[in-house]
Amino acid sequence: MSRRPTTARRLADTGGIPFVGSFHPKSRPSPLLSLGLVVGALLIIGYVYHGSGGRSPADAFSKLEGGMSCTAELHRALPGLKKAYGDNMRKVLHVGPDTCSVVSKLLKEEDTEAWGIEPYDLDETDSNCKHLVHNGIVRVADIKFPLPYRSKSFSLVIVSDAVDYLSPRYLNKTLPELARVASDGLVILSGYPGQQRVKVAELSKFGRPAKLRSSSWWIRFFIQTSLEENEAATKKFEQAAAKRSYKPACQVFHLKPLLR
């Protein structure tokens, strides 16, 4: 993932309301027309938000644009992960964009420590995220380099929306490093091939567009890097998902930690 940190913001943060500002600069639409367009746009977003089962406004924007985010999907997958890992979710590291939202949610769980790594620039952040960063709970770190943690520092490491932007050259180093700091398991959420990703100025922020790979590609890669599937966790997660009639919108891989 060759990229330079920038201050580009993702779609949900650009503040762009559809249609507003699309007029010729010399034309002056009536206040009522402008107000009507804004209200109409908000109604559309509200409809998408309602139809998404109460997901966040950022998710609503993603759905409106036809894109998706595996970090947003992770919020839906957490109940199944809790069933699959149980006590092994006592100390969790999340790696991926919007990690503040994931860490905040995990910290609300009883007997759960949560930490996060944001692989890309944090631009404008809310007060809660600033608090997490200030206290060292969330760090901004380039995951192409060794992580600033000792081996087996966390019971479970969860990665979303990060590996899809890494080339195989960096994946060879990053995935074993992520598995190194996990004592009980590594969970990876990756997009399905053919999915449209959220438009977030990918080239400027990530340095490359997302490369959405098939499950067979990932399985071959895991074998090549000596990472083994955690079959027990996979089965428990699938059973929990079936009970909730939940079908993940992202590929979810459950891997064992490195033995060494």
TrEMBL record:
GO molecular function term, any single one: methyltransferase activity
Membrane-spanning residues: 32-49
GO BP: any one term: pectin metabolic process
Keywords noted in UniProt: Membrane, Transmembrane, Transmembrane helix
Keyword Chaperone: no
Cross-referenced InterPro entries: CGR2/3, SAM-dependent_MTases_sf
Keyword Transmembrane helix in record: yes
Protein name: Uncharacterized protein At3g49720-like isoform X1
Organism: Nicotiana sylvestris (Wood tobacco)
